[in-house]
Amino acid sequence: MSVRRVRVELPDTAYDVLIGSGLLDEVGPLVRGVTRARCAALVSDENVAERYAIRVDVSLARSGFRVSSLTVPPGESSKEWSLAGELLEALAAKGLSRDDIVVALGGGVTGDLVGFVSAVYLRGIDLVQVPTTLLAMVDSSVGGKTAVDLPAGKNLVGAFKQPLLVVADVDTLKTLPDEEWRSGLAEVAKTAMLSGEEMLSWMEGNARRLLDRDPDAVIEAVERCVAFKAGVVAADERESGPRECLNYGHTLGHAIEKVAGYGRFTHGAAVAEGMRFASRVAVQLAGADVSFVRRQDRLLDALGLGALEVALPTAVLHDAMRSDKKARGGEVRMVLVSEPGTWSCVAVERAVIDEHLEAWAGTKSEGEGA
Ligand code: ADP
Ligand code: ZN
Known about the structure:
The chain is of the alpha/beta class. Helix content is 47%, strand content 20%. It contains 13 helices and eleven strands. The chain has helices at 27-32, 46-62, 81-93, 108-120, 134-140, 178-195, 197-211, 215-235, 250-260, 267-285, 290-302, 314-322, 350-362, and strands at 4-9, 14-20, 39-45, 66-72, 101-106, 126-131, 145-150, 153-160, 165-169, 332-339, 342-348. Helix 5 (134-140) runs parallel beside helix 8. The radius of gyration is 20 Å and the shape is globular. The termini are far apart. The structure holds adenosine-5'-diphosphate and zinc ion (ZN).
């Protein structure tokens, strides 16, 4: 079985992202290849632990690590500040030292939480990421962003923490709930739009295989996304320039998640809706062709990411868009894609946002006080 290797090169460090089948049983030797640590803390959420932790635990132990397995409850609530504190206490109680290593096994929530904890425990301890959701494989495990939530908002506390290694075993994706699968596909579609004609055509030709989780298509999609993100992050480790493109679809997407209430829609479903919205704004402001809007709509439809049936108050959505982290001086800034692979980050006037939000709301069914 071939393993794909994508190298992430940053100014101060570099690491490999390995993508393949059967890699969970290889985590021990792979981690041994990057560290001389004696102890490894293996952290996962309960859903992932019951399915996969044993294999990783055994593999690490066979490679000579003294393993401490820790679990957190599944779901976004695990990114609470208090849980980060509990995890830090647990690492201390297990006696983990500066030379030891933390292995994060799970989705984006686990990766964010464990990444953050490893960034601050003893001012930083080595980290290996073993993502088990499509979203985490294609997005959160590359780039080094970690975060926990505060009652005041999501991801308000965080740190940059680059892992020593990322091991993506695509076999784990077989047990992912359908909704989570499609959520990850939205980020793959986002990458295709940003990457260019070649990847976009590939995705259009393989949409069915991706929806069916065909292993070869999945490996290829993950590799393409990781390679794209590695390139972006290498050019812009801390986000100000090129990295902004990764927010395509996220301005309205984040607003929908927040206004509808977190958890009502998956992240990817909200981002797909945000991409549909952004493409229409791009026709007006970035010279995108209407046929390109249709093309993106068709791709999202084919991936099981149909337009959301949701009626949300447009004024509240607009406010949420203005509190987005890209906004400057109260003006909404959006990533607009004008053709495959060509994007810009554009300040959009209030009136234009209002007009498009009204048009968008007009396509939704009545109800919920829109
Ligand atoms: P994401 O990666 O989408 O940010 P989470 O880390 O919250 O999100 O994972 C989404 C959900 O899927 C969680 O309930 C988690 O326990 C579960 N999960 C993660 N990986 C797997 C897997 N490989 N198989 C089944 N369930 C999984
Ligand atoms: Zn995202």
